[in-house]
Amino acid sequence: MKIGVMDSGAGGLTILNAIRKKYPFLDLVYLADDDFAPYGNKTIAQLQERLVKVGRFFEKENVQAIVVACNTATVAAIDALRESTSLPVIGVEPAVKPAFRISKQRNVAVLATPVTAQSKRLNQLIDLWKADSQVFIMSSQSLAFDIDAWPESEVKIKHTIHALCDVMLEKKVDTLVLACTHYPLVKHLFEQALGKGCEIIEPSEGVTAQLMRRLEESYPAEMTALLSCAVLQKGVIELCSTLGVKNLPRLTSWTADSQSITDQKHVHI
């Protein structure tokens, strides 16, 4: 069973790593669309057109499902992708529901890219679950893109995070939703800046669970046979980038199970 996972850069590897940890028998193909990054400053029409092309790439790779491991792409273009392919498509949603459930002081911050921060879907989720919570929607134009340039961009990233966290501390935020899959890659920097008094929520476990539900719905016989095996063979990981080979070592460094990477390649979309 082969699964395609995509993002504009390295951020979706937080989702890939969660899938790998929970279901190591799956083969995973990761696409970093670095050449089209950052997604946060593209129009909705541009993102929709791009995701349709990404879907065609994964179809040629013979995957059984596509995980859009990018909040911006999910809110802006996942419907266009679903209309263009017969494969199951799993998106990623900001984890606002669990954040509102665990917040003790009822002060929740949601940090996203500008496209996600302004999206109708995010605001619908917040209105649905916030109850009596104070919600602060925050965004950064550059943080996701800068994370893709780690470690050269480390100083700039730390400056951005400290500036964002200073605002959160001033507003007495006790729960932070990381609404971009890039941000958990530097979760430790948010933890350092915010201290132990702030819970940090990200969506990787929820996306992983939804992927398995969709696989069982779409391929019941295959999944039953696969899960009934006494010994499951460990799957392989393929890393792909649209920018060329120069970012592949960086992607490898963010991959938790890098020993299972069997192929790294530049792809054209």
Automatic annotation (TrEMBL):
Pfam families listed in its UniProt record: Asp_Glu_race
Domain of life: Bacteria
The organism's taxonomic lineage, starting at the top: Bacteria, Pseudomonadati, Pseudomonadota, Gammaproteobacteria, Oceanospirillales
GO BP terms: cell wall organization; peptidoglycan biosynthetic process; regulation of cell shape
List of catalytic residues: 70 (proton donor/acceptor), 180 (proton donor/acceptor)
Functional note: Provides the (R)-glutamate required for cell wall biosynthesis.
Pathway connected to this protein: Cell wall biogenesis; peptidoglycan biosynthesis
Enzyme's top EC category: isomerase
SUPFAM superfamilies referenced in this protein's UniProt entry, alphabetically: Aspartate/glutamate racemase
EC id: 5.1.1.3
Descriptive protein name: Glutamate racemase
Similarity field: Belongs to the aspartate/glutamate racemases family.
Native source organism of the sequence: Marinomonas profundimaris
Keyword annotations of the record: Cell shape, Cell wall biogenesis/degradation, Isomerase, Peptidoglycan synthesis
